Amino acid sequence: MVVRHDADASKALLEQVNQALNSGTKLRIQGGNSKAFLGRKVEGEVLDTRVHCGIVSYDPTELVITARAGTPLVDLQAALDEAGQMLTCEPPHFAEDATVGGMLAAGLSGPRRPWSGAVRDLVLGTRVITGFGKHLRFGGEVMKNVAGYDVSRLMAGSLGCLGLVTEVSLKVLPKPRECVSLRFEVDVETALKNLAEWGQQPIPISAASYHDNALHLRLEGGEGSVASARERLSCELLDGDYWQQLNEHQLHFFRSETPLWRISVPNNTGVLALPGEQLIDWGGAQRWLKSDSDAQTIRRIVSEAGGHATCFTPGACDSPMPPLSAPLQRYHRQLKAQLDPQGIFNPGRMYPEV
Amino acid sequence: MSIVYDERVDGVLPKVDKAALLSELQARLPDLDVLHTEEDLKPYECDGLSMYRTTPMMVVLPEHIGQVETLLKICHQRQVPVVARGAGTGLSGGALPLEQGILLVMARFNKILEIDPAGRFARVQPGVRNLAISQAAAPYELYYAPDPSSQIACSIGGNVAENAGGVHCLKYGLTVHNLLKVEILTVEGERMTLGSDALDSPGFDLLALFTGSEGMLGIVTEVTVKLLPKPQVAKVLLASFDSVEKAGRAVGDIIAAGIIPGGLEMMDNLAIRAAEDFIHAGYPVDAEAILLCELDGVEADVHADCERVRQVLEAAGATEVRLARDEAERVRFWAGRKNAFPAVGRISPDYYCMDGTIPRRELPGVLKGIADFSEEYGLRVANVFHAGDGNMHPLILFDANQPGELERAEALGGKILELCVKVGGSITGEHGVGREKINQMCSQFNSDELTLFHAVKAAFDPSGLLNPGKNIPTLHRCAEFGSMHVHHGQLPFPELERF
Ligand SMILES: Cc1cc2nc3c(=O)[nH]c(=O)nc-3n(C[C@H](O)[C@H](O)[C@H](O)COP(=O)(O)OP(=O)(O)OC[C@H]3O[C@@H](n4cnc5c(N)ncnc54)[C@H](O)[C@@H]3O)c2cc1C
């Protein structure tokens, strides 16, 4: 299919949703399909967001960019790059044609997440086609806005189960002036202990991972702070491309047939005795696990540590998303029933009942 | 003098049998402090927006969560509306009580439950004051970033309910960016955890949805916030300008230079003079506008950024740029800004604080518009502005004892908010809609958008018992409001029948 890089197809999308509502057709919302592995399998007519693309507005001094859902993420990032700005959450692409809408719906964030926030933290506003067949606007392009409920942030990470996001406004920030990556050969206990200590000090860390017997650290900030931190932590330099390879799952660790799990835990969690091989990211708050163990075993250990586990390998687990408590489950159902009463948007993608 | 609101268009509230409710509360919750006599109820008539007053039917002051749980169950069963209240500093009437409802005061939940320096979080009860968290974290060189000007008094539960901001928001985010986990009691009195001790949690982002929901979706019973390491140094530059437009442009120039200041605030001449009279901060009283620009972080960076910002400010036409010489002067510069509201309170019998946000580039036009309205309505307006993130606080000066002035102040305020919406902004950046801006919601959102908000509410509180009549207007209210305010020759709700 030919992708045009600036096209307002909102009318066509609205029509497709209204037809689906009239005929009771389920819709499978799809951008670049780069995150198809996430969540449960959805049966339904494909709604391709890529027809609706292009940057709607971008004024670097306002620190806001607005783009249509089908805009290729690389295009958005290229525009920011040109103005010396960035999406601080470093969303992973996982394929060349990843879209802005997919980034929002998946809600995945990269190595900078613990220090600069997640996708949801950047969301300022959205346009959404709802389960009532209306094209609505929530939030906007201003930094602060508490009028009404925060429907826009709710859309982040909702896997398209609450409505079709057609446009999103995101807060952007200037790129740091200086960036240095380091590598330390240490054991994992020492690495986690150091991270807990450094986390309480004003050291400009913007990424920290551990695997293959080494702690990897990225320092970002002004020239002065980065230079002084680097001096203090003297050790070998690391190629800065490493972080992208980590983020895009291109490191050797990720080249494997074994099911992959994403584990999210409190940032001061120690070494987790999980069956399988691990890679620690987010300064300790995110762990990647390659394991053939069953979901129950993994989830029991992880929830004892106060965290939750998501399966990233399609088909490896019946319930890839972490289970919800009983009251949360009930309110998820009720929210879905209120916002998408006919259940046409990605039914069952997140949980069977939503 | 007070504003009497038209309740009719928000739907009829259930009639509550006060005596029967009181005896059930006393029987089932003998330890619970319940206020129900006229004189005891008086202090709870209003929150920080004192023009709006209602005497609650009853006030309860629980001390443990079990009491709140039982209370909510009783209220749910009897269909009694419940309005939560933290410290009552809200500026939009969000905690305005109901004659037919219970005011649930959470202020006695004032314990800091846990400070974990290695995990960089604090777990606190909802009545804990914002500043108390940073004070408790201070021995570990950590702090809680969002710092509303009311931070010595406002509660963290109220901050969550309003998504409160502060002068350091552009760099460090709002309340929503600094929360890990919130414990909720639902309208049915069921416990539910939103967020988690990790950085994210499974399912929909209900933590984000509840933040800023003004006590309409659930009662906050515990809050876990992120703590940050204290910046090594903070420096403040004070720049004077001979026009507000120039000051406004300078803000954009600083950001265009790739600098995100810790705080970036603007005040106009009227606000400068009021603050200077009150605090003696050392402000230049002849300036048309000042900018306060705080740079914080590691010493070497801050030093370099101060130089960069100074150059930007001078290039933007600042008549004077002063760097606070020492910590005492820095604190004084901020004290002037943080006390701007009470300072204005000293030069006028009453003032009315607005909270609109706009894209920064619209600032000159909006300030001009405000000046025109000010003249039209014959009331002075002082401007205090979170310039970095486009959040304006025009303060309308009036005297409630002069017949008609309150109404004029309200009407002028409404005009300002509508102007904010027109240029792509919002009617409220941090103070919330509450009761106050309920009509202006009809300018910002169309009927389909409001309907969706009602659907969100219905998912969590189908019978509408939590804080009814706030935040989201009924479509009938908008139809009535719209019939008075015609935009572009068209009523905002043409599809609704008029009455
Ligand atoms: C001088 C002054 C300066 C201010 N400056 C700022 C500022 O810089 N930034 C800013 O954001 N705000 C500011 N405010 C407004 C106000 O302080 C904030 O909105 C604050 O968050 C309110 O907290 P509170 O505890 O007083 O809440 P209240 O006023 O008691 O309640 C506010 C809302 O929260 C709800 N609520 C309270 N507690 C709970 C709970 N436990 N569970 C559920 N709902 C609850 C209430 O129902 C109500 O809707 C200022 C106010 C004043 C008077």
From TrEMBL, chain A:
<dbReference type="Pfam" id="PF01565">
    <property type="entry name" value="FAD_binding_4"/>
</dbReference>
<feature type="domain" description="FAD-binding PCMH-type">
    <location>
        <begin position="1"/>
        <end position="175"/>
    </location>
</feature>
<protein>
    <submittedName>
        <fullName>Glycolate oxidase FAD binding subunit</fullName>
    </submittedName>
</protein>
<dbReference type="GO" id="GO:0071949">
    <property type="term" value="F:FAD binding"/>
</dbReference>
<dbReference type="InterPro" id="IPR036318">
    <property type="entry name" value="FAD-bd_PCMH-like_sf"/>
</dbReference>
<dbReference type="GO" id="GO:0003824">
    <property type="term" value="F:catalytic activity"/>
</dbReference>
<dbReference type="InterPro" id="IPR006094">
    <property type="entry name" value="Oxid_FAD_bind_N"/>
</dbReference>
<dbReference type="InterPro" id="IPR016169">
    <property type="entry name" value="FAD-bd_PCMH_sub2"/>
</dbReference>
<keyword id="KW-0274">FAD</keyword>
<dbReference type="InterPro" id="IPR016164">
    <property type="entry name" value="FAD-linked_Oxase-like_C"/>
</dbReference>
<keyword id="KW-0285">Flavoprotein</keyword>
<dbReference type="InterPro" id="IPR016166">
    <property type="entry name" value="FAD-bd_PCMH"/>
</dbReference>
Automatic annotation (TrEMBL), chain B:
<dbReference type="GO" id="GO:0071949">
    <property type="term" value="F:FAD binding"/>
</dbReference>
<dbReference type="GO" id="GO:0009339">
    <property type="term" value="C:glycolate oxidase complex"/>
</dbReference>
<dbReference type="InterPro" id="IPR016169">
    <property type="entry name" value="FAD-bd_PCMH_sub2"/>
</dbReference>
<dbReference type="Pfam" id="PF02913">
    <property type="entry name" value="FAD-oxidase_C"/>
</dbReference>
<dbReference type="InterPro" id="IPR004490">
    <property type="entry name" value="GlcD"/>
</dbReference>
<dbReference type="InterPro" id="IPR016167">
    <property type="entry name" value="FAD-bd_PCMH_sub1"/>
</dbReference>
<dbReference type="InterPro" id="IPR016166">
    <property type="entry name" value="FAD-bd_PCMH"/>
</dbReference>
<dbReference type="InterPro" id="IPR004113">
    <property type="entry name" value="FAD-bd_oxidored_4_C"/>
</dbReference>
<feature type="domain" description="FAD-binding PCMH-type">
    <location>
        <begin position="52"/>
        <end position="230"/>
    </location>
</feature>
<keyword id="KW-0285">Flavoprotein</keyword>
<dbReference type="InterPro" id="IPR016164">
    <property type="entry name" value="FAD-linked_Oxase-like_C"/>
</dbReference>
<dbReference type="InterPro" id="IPR051914">
    <property type="entry name" value="FAD-linked_OxidoTrans_Type4"/>
</dbReference>
<keyword id="KW-0560">Oxidoreductase</keyword>
<dbReference type="Pfam" id="PF01565">
    <property type="entry name" value="FAD_binding_4"/>
</dbReference>
<protein>
    <submittedName>
        <fullName>Glycolate oxidase</fullName>
    </submittedName>
</protein>
<dbReference type="InterPro" id="IPR016171">
    <property type="entry name" value="Vanillyl_alc_oxidase_C-sub2"/>
</dbReference>
<dbReference type="GO" id="GO:0003973">
    <property type="term" value="F:(S)-2-hydroxy-acid oxidase activity"/>
</dbReference>
<keyword id="KW-0274">FAD</keyword>
<dbReference type="InterPro" id="IPR006094">
    <property type="entry name" value="Oxid_FAD_bind_N"/>
</dbReference>
<dbReference type="InterPro" id="IPR036318">
    <property type="entry name" value="FAD-bd_PCMH-like_sf"/>
</dbReference>
